[in-house]
Design a protein that fits this description.
heterodimer, A: mainly beta, 7-stranded mixed β-sheet, 4-stranded antiparallel β-sheet, B: mainly beta, 6-stranded mixed β-sheet
Chain lengths: 114, 113
């Protein structure tokens, strides 16, 4: 069984730039969600994708956007980067949207904004 | 507002002793409750969940958690700690009408030999 994989693992950007983070969901999982984990804090929900549609969003501005592809992989895009966007970005997959089961997390992409 | 509180930033325990990591929540209705563990430079790993039924839930690596509805708590426990249990532990809740997990701020567990 293939787990959740994320790329890149680390990256450095400057303020104002744009970044794309990628996620391959666990085999058989059709729902992907993204979380932001700032240093010393718990993960914060960004949004969730199910069947290529965004079906839930946390308290993040529109410059955070995403995609889900037919193979259930996903991208997180962040435009106009700010210093506070520096964080570990976690992708998680699950079997169906809104189920009672656990999320399976990747190891994250650590973004540093200078 | 929905929230999760982990009142201890760090818990220290000697190997072989029992451990408890505390979690309380503020979510309407009957939420789903979860515990995750995070090792350095790694993602989150699922430990256990409470959906309904027995208030004592058993999970991975010998961990268990006790759900207390009247106290809105979901404390993580283990009868005998191992040095390898040292990690960052997160409690999370999900409202049954929602899809997002709300995480606590995490508790660092340090098990000394």
């Amino acid at each position: 069984e293939t787990g959740v994989t994320q790329s890149p693992t680390h990256l450095i950007k400057t303020r104002g730039q744009q970044v794309t983070l990628r996620c391959s969901s666990q085999s058989g999982h059709n729902t992907v969600s993204w979380y932001q984990q700032a240093l010393g804090q718990g993960p914060q929900f960004i949004f969730q994708y199910y069947r290529e549609e965004e079906n839930g969003r946390g308290n993040f501005p529109p410059r955070f956007s995403g995609l889900q592809f037919p193979n259930y992989s996903s991208e997180l895009n962040v435009n106009a980067l700010e210093l506070d966007d520096s964080a570990l970005y976690l992708c998680a997959s699950s079997l169906t949207s809104g189920n009672t089961g656990e999320l399976f997390f990747g190891e994250g992409s650590r973004l540093t904004v200078l | 507002a929905q929230s999760v509180a982990q009142p201890e930033d760090q818990v220290n325990v000697a190997e072989g002793n029992p451990l408890t990591v505390k979690c309380t929540y503020s979510v309407s209705g009957n939420p789903y409750l979860f515990w995750y563990v995070q090792y350095p430079n790694r993602g989150l790993q699922f430990l256990l969940k409470y959906i309904t039924g027995d208030n004592l839930v058993k999970g991975s690596y010998g961990f268990e958690a006790e759900f207390n509805k009247s106290q809105t708590s979901f404390h993580l426990k283990k009868p005998s700690a191992l040095v390898s249990d040292s990690a960052l532990y997160f409690c999370a809740v999900r409202d049954r009408s929602s899809y997002k997990l709300i995480f606590g701020s995490g508790t660092r567990l340090l098990v000394r030999p």
